[in-house]
Amino acid sequence: MRAAQVRRTGGPEVVEVVDVEEPRPGPGQVLVEVDAAGVNFIDTYHRSGVYPRETPFGLGLEGAGRVLGLGDGVEDLAEGQLVAWKQAPGSCAERVVVEVAEAVPVPRGVDAETAASLMLQGLTAQYLCTSTHAVAPGDVVLVHAAAGGVGLLLTQMVVLRGGRVLATTSTPEKAALARGAGAEEVLGYDDFATRARELTDGEGVAAVYDGVGRATFAQGLDALRPRGVMVLFGGASGQVEPLDLQELNARGSLYVTRPSLGAYTRTREELLQRAEAVLGWAARDELSVRVGGRYGLDDVARAHEDLEARRTTGKLLVLPAGEAEAELGRS
To 10 degrees, the CA torsion angle through 31, 88, 102, 285? Predict the structure, then answer.
């Protein structure tokens, strides 16, 4: 079978599509035919070596597809069932082995592309606004990169919970997408903290959801109200500088957290609870999923290039069974 693989770390050019041995499910595992695999910033961190992995390794973690085979001891899944997952190394391939603990049954009314789009980014958005800072009705929060994969979903979820979103985007086209997702105001990245304070009568926002990192973090602290929460969940622009904790006191007893999806899905019960919430919103058409680009398996390197160059909005998917039919919504 064919799979996207990295034999040496580096730029997108190191991605190779190679023939590899057909995987077989072991105890507590299922073999899945991949209908759609998600492309995420963590994949670029693995590829570049920011997050070191032993080479060679298969790219991709997230996806959805039909179960082809069951390993020993698997009883709660069936062949032919549509499942989705957030953590199965080597998911950018025609087939992949998924641990049963990671395999989420996909409900009726949700297709494979939607399910694959929601596992990493959707679950991230869900825990950010329900657990890391549980948005309460009337809360005003700031969402950075609101036209991105997490940003569009997070904006919608905050609104579903009765919150109000101030969004940052980089272009008028992306601003329109953020407004379409429910953002009350869209700000540029220059001096966004001042604007956020103006729009909250000088108080500041309850939380800043920051997946950008170095370029926005310091100013984001200025946007927070007393006892506000800085939620740093990514570093698309680079890792932030070290922080003197006395700064949190001086700015009004602020909180800073660096959450991860793994810490918020520590058990299968918690994973299923969060997945059922997210997929349920999608099944009821309460959550809109924007697929910004579809790529064939031979175009994985281009997907990485587009993601890192900020040419995309919404979710990027690799369709292993499709011919290089990339449809890229660029803004």
Answer: -100
Q: Report yes or no: 112 and 38 within 8 Å, Cβ to Cβ.
A: no
pTM across the whole model: 0.90
CB 220: neighbour CB atoms within 10 A?
A: 28
Q: Tens of pLDDT along 8-49?
A: 999 999 999 999 999 999 999 999 999 999 999 899 999 999
Give 196-222 pLDDT, tens digit per residue. 999 999 999 999 999 999 999 999 999
310: closest CA among 175, 181, 189, 169? 169
Strands (E), the chain: 2-6, 15-19, 29-39, 57-58, 63-70, 82-85, 95-99, 104-105, 140-143, 164-168, 185-187, 205-210, 224-232, 255-257, 291-295, 315-318, 327-328
Complete domains list, the chain, with CATH: 2-120+267-328 (3.90.180.10), 136-258 (3.40.50.720)
What gap in Å lies between CA 68 and CA 77, rounded to an integer?
11
For residue range 74-83, what is the model confidence (pLDDT) as tens digits? 999 999 999 9
